[in-house]
Design a protein that fits this description.
Elements lengths: L1 E13 L2 E7 L2 E14 L7 H8 L47 E9 L11 E9 L4 E8 L1
Antiparallel strand pairs: 1-2, 1-6, 2-3, 3-4, 4-5, 5-6
């Protein structure tokens, strides 16, 4: 049996996977990561991407693409052998497309002390990390 949840949890990671989490005032130690997956979300449906792909309606889609040469880097921005420095002319700004990407972890965990090497006192939990909010949730409890 599984129960769907949407409870905020605090997660401590070790080697990029959950090691323990705090849920309902209790600490659950992860005994094993059973599976891990990433859901990318619908980045192609975001307002920013739709605005970029919509165009202004005046351009002919069959017209040849207009291009222009990339200007050379100024002398002060070149390495000794003439190659441009990697950051000259780069435009860096905040990411404007929230793709809703989430990292999921199905873990076997329980509240210590565990009774011996058996899995008594443990359960299976789906933990979800949302990159857009930077928060963890407990999404499912499997009994």
């Amino acid at each position: 049996m599984s129960r769907l949840r949407v409870d905020a949890v605090e997660v401590q990671r070790h080697d990029d996977v959950p090691a323990q989490f705090l849920w309902g005032g209790r600490i659950y130690k992860v005994r094993e990561v059973l599976s891990r997956w990433t859901e990318s979300g619908g980045w192609w449906r975001s307002a920013g991407v739709l605005a970029l792909s919509a165009g202004d309606g005046e351009a002919d889609p069959l017209a040849p693409l207009r291009t222009s040469p990339i200007p050379s880097s100024p002398k002060w921005a070149q390495r000794a052998w003439g190659e441009p420095a990697p950051d000259v002319g780069a435009v860096v700004g905040p990411a404007s497309v929230d793709d809703g990407e989430q990292d999921w972890f199905r873990v076997e965990a329980g509240c210590p002390p565990f009774s011996g090497p058996s899995s008594a006192g443990t359960g299976v939990y789906d933990l979800c990390f949302s990159w857009s909010s930077g928060r963890w949730t407990l999404a499912r409890v499997l009994d």
